Task: structure prediction
Amino acid sequence: MVQLDGSDHDWLEGRGPKMVLMGYIDDASSHFFGRFYDYEGVYPAMDSLERYIRRFGRPVSLYMDKHSTYKTTPQGSPLWMSCLRGRAQPLRWKEPARSLASK
Result:
């Protein structure tokens, strides 16, 4: 299992802009892979996942936290809540990951 998380921090200790480290850690080997981005969002997550897969291959499983980047949020709208039946719907990560792994 590989764990993915974004860490928003003043990585340059005031000598530059704040950045987000999109980090991947292999649970079995403790091997770490990371890349810096301007923000934590869908593009940085998918870009870093593509880079991870191209370098190390597709992981057997991928764990992501409950950050809104990785799920659909209803934004409190009654229409959204009725459509989603009160549950947040996960984004479809399997299809892009499969596509990246087959390249």
Remarks:
- Residues 2-101 form a domain with the Nucleotidyltransferase; domain 5 fold (CATH 3.30.420.10).
